[in-house]
Design brief:
The protein has helices spanning 2-9, 17-29, 31-38, 50-70, 96-106, 111-139, 147-169, 174-188, 194-202, 211-240, 261-286, 292-295, 314-322, 337-364, 380-400, 402-409, 413-452, 476-483, 508-521, 532-540; strands spanning 42-43, 79-81, 93-95, 259-260, 327-330, 333-336, 454-461, 467-472. The protein is mainly alpha-helical and 545 residues long. The strands form 4 sheets. It has a two-stranded antiparallel ribbon with strand order 1-4. Strands 2-3 form a two-stranded antiparallel sheet. A two-stranded antiparallel sheet has the order 5-6.
């Protein structure tokens, strides 16, 4: 029996069929060598690394649900009279885009749940990307050799914002239509080219007949395609550069301490994907979002109070809302600075975020590779910049919802607007100063713990009557964590004259670089960490009680 079975499955002198197929595929695709070199790749284990996975899994959920929705959505601005199953809307004229959105919500099996999963996944995707980039920024994970990967992540965030905007504009309801009208006003405020751009994008006078089909193409094909390419490039670079890791015992720039990709990491990642999918599905099932049937179809002559964009566009909305309505009229042309200045500030802020890794590298003058992450307290200036940006962002979120703040808390909308105008300039400065002081205080505490140990809470009375608290010495792993960081010296310009008494010519960039370097690593910005000599001197005497 065994010989017959063997004869039916393999030929004499040949490998089994499965092995032959694997050899054939490996000879043409190089699968075996690729798997051998990458499937055992080590990844460190830390909860903050899961933020990027949340963004990745949310993007997958968006793609899956988006494909389902495209089967039933009609991206047309042709007007029809609604006769669907939602009785309150029957007999109302609307676009086919709005009608198909109602059909998806009330007539397609599972359509409303898929719609809400799609929308919630988009919000989670952008939130996860922003928090992930905050983790990368505060820990210095953007340093060489990962500057390009930082740019990829930044572009994913920006494209995600515009993809979200085009997506929530597709139903053509009163809320999204108001947002599109807002964008049209921003485009028209651009000098010289504004009216031409408006006609090019909308295909005529607002609202025209082309904007929804064009948004659909951009939302479904163009932006997701670019984002998918950036995402693949981002993941390839994560594989190519070994993963960053937090400082700890045994962790250096030359190794990675963690778990292999297969089978441990893949099993955990697969389970985490279904967990993310489940949580988003539960949120979508119990928390209504974008109920277009309660808002109604868009009409150019109507607008509702409380019209707000999704949170990720609130910064841009706030800039426009709180900007004074300044205008200049000359030569028959009008410059609307109330809109023009905000639309210039917004991309400038984004560009500053994108190029920050290159600025810090230039200031520091460090060309080495960095695979060990910084503790935010050990880089007070960078941490201060990050917190200052977050404060500016949240202040503008308040500005973007000034009408809701006014109605819900019974406040004057003018008072809120003036608060936002002042806080936008004052708040980040105060946040920067407070953050630096907190970081320096934490550095002092770390130095004290290294030299004197941890407070145990045990009170001891000395022979001469003095009461002291007993300190416990730190173990070697804790000492390494608190002392492993580098403290670069600030760049020095050197003497103003050379050895021959001739005045040295220094460029403005050299002077600026020296000042910025001092702001990062000068005496007022770093607490010198404990030295080996200080530690031995105290630990050998009565430093530890």
């Amino acid at each position: 029996m065994s010989n017959e079975t063997s004869a039916t499955t393999t030929r004499r002198g040949q490998a089994p069929r499965g092995e032959r197929i694997a050899d054939w595929a490996d000879g043409r695709l190089g699968i075996y060598s690729l798997a051998k070199s990458n499937m055992r790749k080590i990844f460190p284990d830390h909860w903050s690394f899961m933020l990027g996975e949340v963004a990745l899994y949310s993007f997958i959920i968006i793609i899956l649900t988006g494909v389902y929705l495209t089967l039933f959505f009609h991206p047309s601005m042709a007007e029809v009279t609604y006769h669907g199953s939602y009785v309150p809307m029957q007999g109302i004229r609307m676009t086919q885009a709005f009608e198909s959105t109602l059909d998806i919500s009330f007539d397609v099996r599972g359509g409303l749940l898929i719609r809400q999963i799609h929308h919630w996944a988009a919000l989670v995707f952008l939130a996860a990307m922003m928090v992930h980039m905050m983790r990368v920024f505060f820990t210095g994970a953007f340093r060489k050799p990962r500057e390009v990967n930082w740019l990829f992540g930044f572009l994913l965030l920006v494209l995600g914002m515009f993809t979200g905007f085009t997506g929530y504009s597709l139903p053509d309801d009163l809320l999204s239509g108001t947002g599109v009208r807002f964008i049209e006003g921003v485009i028209l405020a651009m000098p010289l080219v504004g009216s031409y751009l408006q006609f090019f994008i909308f295909g005529g006078e607002f609202p025209g007949h082309d904007i929804i089909p064009r948004f659909f193409t951009v939302h479904v094909l163009l932006l997701p395609g670019i984002m998918l390419g950036l995402l693949v490039a981002h993941l390839i670079l994560v594989f190519y550069h070994k993963h960053t890791q937090f400082p700890g015992a045994g962790k250096t720039n030359n190794n990675v301490v963690g778990m292999p990709l297969l089978p441990v990491y893949m099993a955990k990642a697969g389970g985490f994907f279904f967990l993310v999918f489940g949580v988003i599905s539960v949120i979508a099932a119990v928390a209504s979002i974008n109920p277009v049937w309660a808002i109604g179809p868009y009409r150019p002559d109507q607008v509702s109070t409380g019209a707000q964009p999704d949170w990720y566009m609130g910064f841009a909305e706030g800039l426009v809302r709180v900007m004074p309505g300044w205008e200049w009229n000359f030569w028959g042309h009008t410059l609307n600075f109330g809109v023009l200045i905000p639309i210039l500030v917004f991309p400038l802020v984004l560009v500053a975020i994108a190029v920050y890794p290159f600025i810090e590298s230039w200031v520091k003058g460090d060309k080495r590779e960095h695979h060990i992450l910084d503790r935010p307290r050990n880089v007070p200036t960078r941490t201060g910049f990050g917190v200052a940006w977050l404060v500016a962002y949240f202040v503008m979120l308040i500005g973007g919802g000034n009408d809701l703040w006014a109605t819900h808390f019974h406040l004057s909308i003018n008072s809120i607007t003036w608060f936002v105008r002042i806080a936008f300039f004052v708040g980040p400065v105060l946040a920067f100063i407070a953050t630096k002081r907190i970081c320096l205080g934490l550095q002092r505490r770390d130095k004290d713990k290294v030299l004197h140990g941890r407070e145990s809470g045990i009170i001891k009375r000395l022979p001469h009557g003095e009461f002291i608290e007993v300190h416990e010495p730190l173990d070697q792993e804790q000492l390494h964590l608190l002392t492993q960081h580098e403290q670069p010296a600030p760049l020095e310009l050197g003497p103003e004259v050379d050895e021959n008494g001739v005045e040295r010519k220094l460029s403005r960039s050299q002077k600026l670089r020296a000042k910025l370097s001092k702001a990062y690593y000068g005496e007022d910005n770093v607490i010198p960490k404990a030295t080996v000599e200080e530690y031995k001197e105290i630990s050998s005497g009565h430093g530890h009680h």
